[in-house]
Amino acid sequence: MSDSATPATPVTFPPAFLWGAATSAYQIEGAVREDGRTPSIWDTFSHTPGKTAGGDTGDVAVDHYHRYRDDVALMADLNLQAYRFSVSWSRVQPTGRGPAVQRGLDFYRRLVDELLEKGIKPAVTLYHWDLPQELEDAGGWPERDTAYRFAEYAQIMGEALGDRVESWMTLNEPWCAAFLGYASGVHAPGRTEPAAALKAAHHLNLAHGLGTKALRSVMPARNQISLSLNTSVVRPLNPRSPADLAAARKIDDLSGGIFHGPILHGAYPETLLEATSSVTDWSCIEDGDLDTIHQPVDALGLNYYTPTLVSAADPDDKGPRADGHGASEHSPWPAADDVAFHQSPGEQTEMGWSVDPTGLHELIMRYHREAPGLPLYVTENGAAYDDKPDADGKVHDPERVAYLHGHLSAVRRAIDDGADVRGYFLWSLLDNFEWAYGYEKRFGAVYVDYASQKRTPKSSALWYARAAKAGELPDPEGT
Q1: Is the pLDDT of residue 7 over 50?
Q2: I need a surface site. Which of 65, 130, 303, 362 has the fewest CB within 10 A?
Q3: Which H or E run includes 303?
Q4: Which pLDDT value is given to residue 8?
Q5: What CA–CA distance (Å, rounded) separates 5 from 405?
Q6: What are the CA-CA distances from residue 427 to residues 110, 417, 451, 467 (Å)?
Q7: How confident is the model at residue 5 (pLDDT cuts 50, 70, 90)?
Q8: Is 448 buried (19+), middle (13-18) or exposed (0-12) by CB count in 10 A?
Q9: pTM of the model
Q10: Which residues are the active-site residues?
Q11: CB of 363 within 8 A of CB of 304?
Q12: For residue 55, is it left (φ>0), alpha (ψ between -120 and 50) or beta?
């Protein structure tokens, strides 16, 4: 079967399938010093010279903090049924400890009320990488105490919004938080300590377990608790090479097994523990931790952009690491210097990531087997392109339309193959601050003129709006 259905073969979705879009707090909110908010690690990192493209910061971003009503109206115009957003921890609990700041909580109360008034289901992510700076000053995620602080924060949010928000995610892409933040240093807080990164991964897992328990203690039983993982779809360069297969297993453990092992199965993969034994003895795992982490989840979020192609490393090859996770002399893959990364074939986005919808189908089916019966959501999927308005002010992005059509078709194939996929959240609703890439990369379905903050739906947004309304993918050539 081809990667995308032909126009003569309509791709339709179940009536209950949820059509959404996603954002994150630091990437869109701005207002970083308003209403009691204090710096997060991303404020500190982006204000450190040389850490982001052009010295860009999220100080203003796309000013969603002040424009949220207009943004929610735009979501309604685009027929969105759900909106996944994250909460700025330091906006509601500035030091990462103690009581909440009600002005910060009030923003999220107003946002939720606005969404519900427009018939849009809010989906809250508690942590999308913006740790309060005071907690990083105390050691950050490599310190066990941070997981307990997260549980207190989760309880605050559950008490504030649990009566109106039914969909909750504890963490977004803990792999990025641990390994880009503490191993390669291309994300905040910018540390390059492999052993600390592995500790951070464990404490993020612990935070998920403790946070899940805290949410359940204060919210109605009907509410759904999950998290979003960006497990790599790892492929060996030579599927018949034992060395390449071993390289793929190592990266699969480091990207996926390190999280889904304890969360879904109550144990870390033995192959992971053995492979990383030269970096850490895993003494950070205390008695009872695995039981705490292994809380039942109501669903699982999957984030996918591109597959990962690896082989055993050639000792003589000293070229740059082509893993798609930013340039750094320090690897985000502890104890994996014997693995080489390769550019996957085919068309590429502005991020240099190959366009391959088969990887999304593969990822979904992997978790359909990994956790039979667990509902799945695609919580991020999208692409960056060099979008520009034409002479009439319109923004045509046929590449993104084709990308979405291909990947949504892959979701439909996974459903046909038995996977319980309940919804899809396009990344991203708006052009925004793209972390270390600053404002150079545009993932949004809605174009933002950063000088004027004017929003213009791209042709992909209009295409997606038609899909959401009909529950069927329009012809990508007809947009």
Answers
A1: no
A2: 362
A3: strand 300-303
A4: 57
A5: 8
A6: 23, 24, 22, 16
A7: very low
A8: buried
A9: 0.97
A10: 380
A11: yes
A12: left
Tokens of 263: 């969360």
Amino acid at 232: S
pLDDT of residue 215: 98
Cα–Cα distance measured from residue 289 to residue 100, given in angstroms and rounded to the nearest whole number: 27
CA distance 322 to 342: 6
* Strand, coil or helix: 1: coil
The reply to whether omega before 189 is within 30° of 0 (cis) is yes
Token pair, residue 400, equals 């993104």
pLDDT at 16 over 60: yes
Name which of 134, 139, 227 is nearest 175 in CA terms: 227
- Runs of H (alpha helix) within 125-180: 133-137, 145-161, 174-175
How do beta strands 308-312 and 421-427 pair? unpaired
Q: Quick: pLDDT tens for 78-115.
A: 999 999 999 999 999 999 999 999 999 999 999 999 99
- What is the pLDDT confidence band of residue 317, given thresholds at 50, 70 and 90? confident
Which tokens belong to 288? 């009872």
DSSP string over 346-413:
S-B-TTS-B--HHHHHHHHHHHHHHSTT--EEEEE----------TTS----HHHHHHHHHHHHHHHH
348, two tokens: 């590429």
CA 295 and chain centroid, separation? 21
**Distance separating alpha carbons of residues 13 and 29, to the nearest angstrom:** 32
Decide if pLDDT at 127 tops 80. yes
Q: Record the tokens describing residue 188, joined without a space.
A: 């905040």
- Residues 413-465: pLDDT tens digits? 999 999 999 999 999 999 999 999 999 999 999 999 999 999 999 999 999 99
- Say how far apart CA 372 and CA 381 lie, in whole Å: 23
The token duo for 440 is 């150079």
Give the model's pLDDT for residue 2.
45
